[in-house]
Specification:
8 helices; mainly alpha; 171 residues; globular
Length: 171
């Protein structure tokens, strides 16, 4: 049978799992959910994804956010993607709002936008407020936006932020 020490170790480990202090199993990747209804978004690493996109899908940390915040020249990559995919039509040329809300101030439409993961989920899967899904895996359309381009757009939006207070995406 088990020794007294082994039983105590098993019980202690079980308590840690139940308390949420120790994972039952390691999470293999970020789990994305729809802003519309909380259902899972079918976004996985793809063969044609960049290393940065694969890193984000694994960790939920956008590698472009800090890079673009530190280097305005590099951030222009995201602004070009923002224009290329016609985000400007609703959110305005500088993301300050037009027919849709500003996405560079501190009045988030959804609280989850204070994380890059949350903003990625909204751009990828759309909203119930009129924004369509843009991610090529979510729409099933290979002509739509790949993960890397969404991440560059988010990096530029973060670098262009005009709201006050804390910037949790830079931590």
């Amino acid at each position: 049978m088990f020794s007294n020490k082994a039983v105590k170790a098993i019980l202690f480990g079980s308590l840690l799992v139940l308390a949420g202090l120790m994972p039952l199993q390691a999470s293999a990747a970020c789990q994305f959910v729809s802003t519309k209804d909380g259902s899972p978004l079918p976004i996985k690493a793809a063969e044609d994804d960049t290393p940065e996109a694969k890193q984000f899908i694994e960790t939920c940390i956008n590698p472009y956010t800090k890079i673009f915040a530190a280097d305005p020249e590099k951030a222009k990559q995201g602004k070009r993607k923002f224009a290329y995919y016609s985000c400007t039509q609703c959110h305005g040329a500088n993301a300050g709002g037009q027919t849709a809300v500003s996405i560079i101030d501190d009045r988030w439409q959804y609280a989850k936008h204070d994380t890059d993961k949350g903003m990625f989920e909204t751009i990828s899967g759309g909203t119930n407020m009129g924004m369509m899904a843009w991610h090529k895996q979510v729409t099933g359309n290979p002509e739509m936006v790949p993960t890397d381009d969404i991440l560059k757009i988010i990096g530029w939006l973060r670098a262009s932020y005009q709201g006050g207070g804390d910037k949790p995406w830079l931590k």
